[in-house]
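To whoever is on call:

I kicked off a structure prediction for a single chain this morning and the downstream step that reads the tokens threw a length-mismatch warning. I double-checked the sequence; it's 260 residues and nothing unusual in it as far as I can see. Pasting both halves so you can look.
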Amino acid sequence: FSNTLGNDQFTVEFKEKDGTTNIIKSRPNMITNDPSKAVPGCNLIIFTVPAFAHEGYFKAIAPYIEPNTVVVGLPSQPGFQFQCCDLLGIGGKTCAIVSFESLPWACRIQKFAREVQVLGPKDTLACAIINRGCRPHFPILPTIQYIIGKEPKLTLAANYLSINLLADSVVHPPMMYGTWKDWDGKPLSEKPLFYQGLNEFAADMLDKVSTELFNTAQAIQKKYPEMDMSDVIHLFDWYKLNYRESISDFSTLQTAMRTC
């Protein structure tokens, strides 16, 4: 990344909801694969890597993380909180853990380490905060909101379990299976679309998975009334809540995802 960027600035093409585009040019203060240089002195650490990479990064930063650090999963995906508690060691025992349900934007890499396109922010984005005795140096949610920008509007979920049960965290497996289950192994004539190419079979699988997660949340709340699981909603409702200004066809889950 560092060699590719060189001394140039990184370019972000940000597409606003009104159709306008803003060009933002900047560059990271530090680019390094050495946690001993990057972590000491940090009181806010944001994970923006895929879930499979979380464990490696937790282990890498554990020797250098300082008390009262705020660790953010953006997104966290199910299990982020448990890995954080398990792998950060002594320094992590007073860390606050912030788990977001999804990414704040849809993004596309245009040129590696040089240019990225942001297709637009979500309307809202929920998170759960586990303080674990942390005494942060700043108000957690307002600070993250300042870093992300005015949109999406960040909200606080009732508990971390609801973040883990939100259907957005399990969207990709049904979509991948629905897209490729009948593939004959031969090259395709053109690149398949992912969300915009959602077929009826995959949409039906998504609906069933989402319904099962919603029913699970309802069963938890029925057995433990003190657990507020109202943040767990069906994926279709989640799309209508987070992309209401971007979707052009709200008829079904499939059309909502294809026209978002």
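Update from on-call: the warning came from a stale cache, not from the record. Cleared it. Sanity check on the structure: Residues 167-181+189-258 form a domain with the N-(1-d-carboxylethyl)-l-norvaline Dehydrogenase; domain 2 fold (CATH 1.10.1040.10).
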